[in-house]
Amino acid sequence: MIVLKSDEQIDGIRTSCKLLAQMFEEIGPQIAEGMSTYDVDRLFHDWMKHRHLGMPCLGYMGYPAATCVSVNNVVIHGIPSKHEILKDGDIVSVDICLEKDGYISDSTHTYEIGKVSPEVHELNVVTEKCLYMGIDAASRPGARIQDIAKAVSTLAQKHGYGVVRDYCGHGVGLEMHEDPEIPNYVSLMNPNPRIRKGMVMAIEPMINMGTYKVDTDRKDGWTVRTLDGKPACHWEHTVAITDSGLEILTQL
Ligand code: MF3
Ligand code: CO
Known about the structure:
Layout: H1 7-27, H2 37-50, E1 67-71, E2 74-76, E3 91-100, E4 103-112, H3 118-139, H4 145-158, E5 162-163, E6 169-171, E7 178-182, E8 200-203, E9 206-208, E10 214-216, E11 224-226, E12 232-234, E13 237-242, E14 245-248
Antiparallel strand pairs: 1-3, 2-11, 3-4, 5-9, 6-7, 6-8, 8-13, 9-12, 10-11, 13-14
Helix pairs in contact: 3-4
Bound molecules: 2-amino-4-trifluoromethylsulfanyl-butyric acid and cobalt (II) ion.
């Protein structure tokens, strides 16, 4: 069931989203070669803790950190580790949910460490572009959920990239994961609800340089990697549909 949000609720979600965007703007530039993925998590964790903000990822189904920090061939749900050190040429996506006064925001940025290869840089640029293509498709009058998938997958496939199928975007705002599911690939089997005022959505293309196929780590139960070991990229914004149209909330 899709829960439509009132203007008051969207105000609350917007506040949460602006804090998340501000945090990315402040902490993002500090992410550098030589830091561990645990160090990265700590920067965000401490920023939220000092402001008494909720961290919905922490403890979610036993997830052990406030953020997901996914390096290179890790698509999503990378668990921060003191043993994983960022090196020149890596890409690292940081996926964070934040809670303020019961309202939840969700956003992901992918950072390039030092000088990445032109191929990896292009993957990052195109994946962020996929996010904006998806957002643009969602903003058109009469748009439906699968229009997002069409826009994202069309651009990704033009570059020969794999579009992850096993994980999707989602409704968000009052809970971390709400209906509808927002896939990045088109399937006739999937529901295709109309996008309407009051919807708040996390749109999040997960794009692989090679195969779309992914695999979850059997030991930790979280880490999702590309099956072929090639790099993956992830960008995400929380958006709302209001009277004045689509608004990207996790953007300053
Ligand atoms: N932020 C993720 C999303 O976009 C959810 C992470 S779940 C966690 O849906 F438990 F791994 F943090
Ligand atoms: Co999300």
